[in-house]
């Protein structure tokens, strides 16, 4: 039993990080049908924003909480710029969005290499994240606990925003039938832009958490983009509850595989497990109507 505790706890923390990375895709891919391969670079932008905030505010106890909303805005503005500049002409053409955003991702990676060192820059953990908590004899790092709490807050806030606000109803109306939504006065272009801003901003928040666990570098987005897409697809496109379950399951599976093999092989085995699951249930855990399914 004791041998199961470390991979279970570490996997839950990894799942929380994947959940943060996938939440934005739940909006931009699940709700809007856009395959945004630059989403990982928005995570990278959030990580580097954390570093820049720490340069401006050296006290990490203060800079980390401040970095969260700043990273959200920075990544959100990048996403908004991408939507206004390119994506707005490519709705209902997901393969085109895939090709274009791959190019955008490469541009952002090269920009990061020009601005920051190739080996990345350090992000200092706050003092209240440097300790450990004892769970059945296992010293669980507080930064992992913080990632889980942050993911829970983001999920709750996003779910409440979509379910209880008028804008959430506008998103659902636009997803189900854009033309009909426009006839009843829904400004679908405003819906598109704000949805992309929020989805990309959540990637920036994920970047803050990722920087505290794994540091920063120009290639870090590549590390998260494919697992994040897998989480969205396994959970059911556009379904937040499915995204939560899938993120936890994939994170725990990767942790257990890493405990038995190596980290790279663990990712391969988790990918194979996902492929097998999708062969059995291609629609994912839950289903929802989207532009792609309408």
UniProtKB/TrEMBL annotation:
Keywords: Amino-acid transport, Cell membrane, Membrane, Transmembrane, Transmembrane helix, Transport. InterPro entries: ABC_transp_permease, ABC_UrtB_bac, BCAA_transport_permease. The chain crosses the membrane at residues 12-30, 64-86, 98-118, 138-162, 194-215, 221-238, 245-278. Its main location: membrane. One of its GO terms (cellular component) is plasma membrane. The keyword Electron transport does not apply. Pfam families: BPD_transp_2. Signal peptide: none annotated. It is found in: Cell membrane. It is a multi-pass membrane protein. GO terms for molecular function: transmembrane transporter activity. GO terms for biological process: amino acid transport. NCBIfam families: urea_trans_UrtB. Belongs to the binding-protein-dependent transport system permease family. LivHM subfamily. This is Urea ABC transporter permease subunit UrtB. It comes from Microbacterium hominis. The gene is urtB.
